[in-house]
Batch of 3 targets.
Target 1
Amino acid sequence: MKTSSNSSPAITPVPLGGPPKDSLSVLMLGAIGVVFGDIGTSPLYAMKESFIGPHPLAVDRLHIFGVLSLIFWALVLIVTVKYVFVAMRADNRGEGGSFALLALISHHLSERHKAMLLVLGVLAAALFYGDAMLTPAISVLSAVEGLTIVEARLQPLVLPIAALIMLGLFFIQSRGTARVGAVFGPIVLVYFAVLAALGIANIVTHPEVLTIVNPAWAVDFFRHDPKLAFLAMGSVFLAVTGAETLYADMGHFGRKAIGLSWIAIVFPCLLINYMGQGALLLANPAAVENPFYLMAPEWARLPLILLATCATIIASQAVISGAFSVTHQAIQLGFLPRLKILHTSARAAGQIYIPVINWGLLIMVLVLVIGFGESTRLASAYGISVVGTMLITTAMLAFLLFKVWRWNRWAAAGTIALFALVDTAFFLSNIAKIADGGWVPLTVAGVIFIILTTWAKGRNLLREQLQADGMPLETFINSTRESVHRVKGTSIFLSAARDGVPPALLHNLKHNQVLHEHVILLTIEVTEEPRVAAKDRLELSHVGHGFHRVVMRYGFTEEIDVPRDLAPATKFGIALDPMRTSYFLSRQKLIAAREVAGMALWREHLFAWMSKASESAMDYFQLPSNRVIELGSQVRI
């Protein structure tokens, strides 16, 4: 805490947090249950879609081995090398993901590069929402479709069952996931063990499938039929969807736990299962209808369906929770208005529930499940938003390697060139999916991008206008020092700017004609760091005549609680008696009246609507409802 008083006692800092301090085995079990749900359910559909998708392949040795080789090298280059060995080294105080990476490199860039990467970071967040609605739809639907393998007459029940699972999943979100999360790890661990067991049982019949690690099979595939091989990459890419989650969830489990889980457990189990599916297709090409379930003996298929469905529900839960986290970060960083956020755990601040996101995702998931009808058609829409995010991550890593880590230029250039080549190849292949459904996640991402950038731009324009219309604080104090009556107590006025007089203070003086004995002008700033140490939380300056300027800082992953975090200010002579402290908020009613520079009139209307729908600052900042006074005003933009 910084203050102008040098004799005041210091505040003991609290730990910054980061990954839980559990044992490595506990963290690995948690990572297996949460981080790898998405990529772990890819065997349900990736191999099948490669052969019976929009661009079907002949089920023969060349194509089976070619597809498997592509899957193997995609898992190696994208997941293992790019994310585990490189991206996960780029932690921002233990946190990962697009926003954390952006914050990590922004301090080392020029304003031009920073603005460009900011746009890319926002675009990555927008693309994530497209992935967040497709993952539950394709995962659960592909699992439930296994019922038709057990009994073909169950086909009419597939959509209703999948829809009911979705409804149940989204309806329990408000109750929190702490209890459910305790069993995620063991269930998914059993699921991966079953994947490996099924793979081994089939590999023994055709052990030559082990040779697919030789990239010559992929080369032969392209040499024999380059067009089909290129288009097949769009389906092969389904095997690596979920790779971004390894980096995004690094703050929850730590780099070591996630990396070791991938290398020692998840990667081998996935690879063995894919090889097993290939061996099955060599022995029985007709099994291409659903190689995942047909690997199992008939008596084991129904239990496998139940286990796979549980795994897809867990994968969906992880994506939904991720959508809540990304939304919270976007709000903190000023890209979304305040939304209602409920904390579902008294112990874990990261466990939150955002109703508008939850119900919005549910509607979109149900529309996708009902509209597309089957996982094969959904697979045509899946992947393009994910590979777009991966391309953006590669662009950010380029700045990281050259500007921040300052690798040898040839090593950095070679690494980024490899990542860019792989990502671009998959991106171009996925472009072919746009006409078959890929336009859906891109449209959603486009709408989200417009919303995020409109709110950020509108806030900046509004802040500039309020500052232009404001009054210098020194002038205000001098004009009120002798003429305004002071009453006992403390008033806290929230202000978006570090200087000037908050509109709420001017409105209060106009209507009530009095000022409190202590007046705190409070500005809340969200930094580019995930968390802020307690010693740096508050910056306090005594302006004089009972006025105090306080700046309260938070990281973009932290929960804002003004009463709790302002309490240490009492050590510096500021009275904060809960029963004699009032909070004054200014709520502007925005009117889009003209087109301003840099913002079209329709975006002004959108910004005004978003402002109206914004959650009250009283709830968002954890202010006591019985001590809050909201003062409204109209602002024309």
Target 2
Amino acid sequence: MAHEPISAPPISTPPAGEQSRDGLPLDPTLPVASLTGAQSLVRSLEAVGVEVVFGIPGGAILPAYDPLMDSPHVRHILVRHEQGAGHAAEGYAVATGKVGVCMATSGPGATNLVTPIADANMDSVPMVAITGQVGAAAIGTDAFQEADIAGITIPITKHNYLVTDPADIPRTIAEAFHLAATGRPGPVLVDVAKSALQARTSFEWPTSVDLPGYRPVVRPHGKQVKEAARLIAAAERPVFYVGGGVIKADAAPEMRALADLTGIPAVTTLMARGALPDSHPTNLGMPGMHGTVAAVAALQKSDLLITLGARFDDRVTGELSSFAPGAKVIHADIDPAEIGKNRAVDVPIVGDAKLVLAELATAVAAEFEANGRADISAWTAQTDAWRTTYPLGYTEPGDGTLSPQHVIERIGAIAGPEAVYVSGVGQHQMWSAQFVKYENPRTWLNSGGLGTMGYAVPAAMGAKVGRPDAVVWAIDGDGCFQMTNQELATCTLNGIPVKVAIINNSSLGMVRQWQTLFYSERYSNTDLHSGDHSAHSAPVPDFVKLADAYGCVGLRCERPEDVDATIRKAMEIDDVPVVIDFRVHRDAMVWPMVAAGVSNDQIQYARGLSPEWDREADSDGVSTDDPAAQKVIS
């Protein structure tokens, strides 16, 4: 399939001949006979429609920062660490669906972007990272602040470029943005030698992008769609296994239409929260290691998995050999490399999820009309029974301290489904996925594949820049927060009023949970001394004082009866960032749980408690009188 040309950006056309402060035409798509490579780079960013760049200047990239100062279209936000720039670009991209952009200098500036680049690669986030490089003549000499960032990032980018000829800059930027945004989205690195930025060149914006080796298939094959429809109509225990690709393709409306049409139970992965509203009657919640009993059970006992933009991640499947053993598999994905990678597939469908879902709905309706469908009423009754019998829940601490689940649940209830929620990684991430009700796509941001601590604050910053009218909550752990909280300075100085809820259990909470369960409560190096549990005379740091030092409003909440009032106070503040130190019970755990590497059949909904079975043969004919079978969801 041929690519459509990249069009000019959505900016107003200036009066003929009008020039910007740098003496160049305001319309960035017009050719220019003589300019520097740095000016060419900035004009290329304007031409592709970039609104904001997150970055930090340095020696090799410095030539680009001078014309950037004159750009009437591109806003630059000076972050405090390059990792923050990368995660901010990710947050902007996920919240808006646009390509996020970050910029850094050579050497350590570029290598500080490696973590967010890897994060974007794992979670299919469209991002372009622009880095300066030492002059072309010095490349390979171990020059000051030289690092082979193109070589370093080959395994974690969709593609990358090293530009040494300034004439190549417009084409390279056009290609980079096209690659980042099309097919399976992902990060693209553009490394530009300082000599190319300083040299004189001409500028001509390409009218189209021609990449002969890059032809992502977006429209599904009709024969495969019809075969999928046939399996759906014949299945007695089908399940929609909905992944983050549905959100990346902006296919939530099509997903809901197909769920309405079929009434088939659905699960939404960690990356797909909001792809189907939590309030939808078919939505069983999140599957996987900390998924709902109903979601995990439905996958395990299904006879057909209709997999849409998901990749059979180990955190969903558990022990792969025992995952959904009786199910046939339909797997639709934009990336053909994902199909069959982890699980054998009966009907592969390569294509964009939005088109796949639309065509699948048409084919399924036609199949139902022509040949009828299997009766799934017993199956939907069973999945509803699991959902009713084993709902998500938690036990309030007996000592009067704060329940972290209650805090997060109340944030979700008070801020509502139109807010954007961004989490770090760990227990608070799982509780945020479980206890906030997601009704809309692009309202839940987290680091799923890489599991990057420190993601929340800068990603929330980027999300707020992209969606300034939305309320943005960063729900962070005290460990994650201390990795990137310097970006609060960026938020304060740039008028980015995010709200940060620190779920402070004075610990690396998820690691502590594993130490409790699997290491005989030997808490090796997981005490952060950041709460009342500290052995010190005072917590280190004091998060309220830290917030104040960064120009934010700092609040603390330690009593259950103060939770709602504290959240509402934060909601009333719109002009500066707010940081709340929620001092929570340190021994709270995330349940349900499937231990790493074991079968999903061994799910526990609380410590030592697994679902009970009916004392009769299950739907696969396995007798649940067998003690071994009683450990299995039926």
Target 3
Amino acid sequence: MRDNTQVERLEAEAVNSVRIRQPMYAARKKIFPKRASGSFRRFKWVVMAITLGIYYLTPWLRWDRGQFAPDQAVLLDLANRRFYFFFIEIWPQEFYYVAGLLVMAGVGLFLITSTVGRAWCGYTCPQTVWVDLFLVVERAIEGDRNARMKLDAGPWTTRKLVLRAAKHTLWLVIGVLTGGAWIFYFADAPTLLGELFTITAAPVAYITVAVLTATTYTFGGLMREQVCTYMCPWPRIQAAMLDESSLTVTYNDWRGEPRSRHAKKVLAAGQPVGDCVDCNACVAVCPMGIVIRDGQQLECITCALCIDACDGVMDKLGKERGLISYATLSDYNANMLLATAGGASSVNPSLVRTADGLFSDKVAHFHIRKIFRPRTYVYIGLWSLIGLGLLYSLLTRDRLEVNVLHDRNPQFVTLSDGSIRNGYTVKLLNMIPEPRTIIVTIQDLQGADMSIVGDDVPASRSFAIPVEPDRLKMLKVFVRQPADQIHGTAQTFKFRVEDKASSESDEYTATFNTPEIAR
């Protein structure tokens, strides 16, 4: 067995501790997380690169929709009230698609949390991603943990002033790029970029960039972990999502306690000793400033950097990895019962090992099957049903619609020949980026014809109306019925619209009002 004192003990004090809770309004204590290395850190680099790449590059992707529609792949066209997402175009009345996606995102978050804990917070939350990016800049300029702590505690010298100015300048540049990327989603990106540099963009563009620059700089550079601890509600909600089969980052004290930096002496004295050497490596790398050995805490975002740090120490000592690991509560409790002889004694790591030092066959280990339980299937099923429903609706939706509004005053007019005339506002929605000729027909109103205000053509039961691409066209229509065809109460009839080229059609049932005397 190697001497545990060969492992450097870091002087790392937890900023957020279970044992000593800080007052809510106490001044912030700076955290100087040490750079970690390992599989989880590499995974976070990959996730950060992908998410930042998606955010910054998406507005520049092109998608050919023809000459009558914008070619930006993802565009929230507020001026024309359209949302373009590659081959999908969403109109305002179709906002239920966006609502459905938000519901899917919520159910997906419940699914992720119930299975692998706060993985969203630890890897893909924008706050986590941008804090990681800001830390990259901070380390590149000021150095790793010890160098940053020394610089922060030292007097203000020219070197310190230059380093701090460079760091904050780059942070502001990241904030500007973040705000700039956001506004590119709402207008043609190349055009807006040129307008920004020539000071011809709309004032709201500059205001948005300024606001997002300030919030990105403040949240990512200055507040950091405070956003997760005090501003985000999810740490307090997530407890309701977890159960004994949820994976969480766990300190396995059933093999780590009692901790000691002098294992040989303790063993020679006939006392049990665990694998933890109290090196504080897990505290030093934690971006939230907690001690994972204190158990689950609301500040923990399960980024798993403490696992990488601890695994590195275990490798140096020639011990098995996993002193800190992703584990379920059920496995942890089973192993604690084994290490305490069913709760009859304090933790004795020798009870979980065989005579040759290997783990006993009774030690519970995680298996992927454990997270697939009824609750998981319910979430997966609900998420899939919503997604399939949205997909079916999207693939079968009509791109041609008609809406009709009856005139309120007057509801009808009696003409000189005794016939009755009703007025309507007919709205034709051509929901594709191509021009169309729409056939508008009235049905089921005996002997009636219609005329279109502004069109110098004879009255008829059917008209061919040209409609511009991706536009709504409003028509003022008068429907007239001869007096000898009016029978009984108010009648219902249909406006039918049809595009012969695509065979799409739609109908609207309207009411034809008549005077009492005619009844």
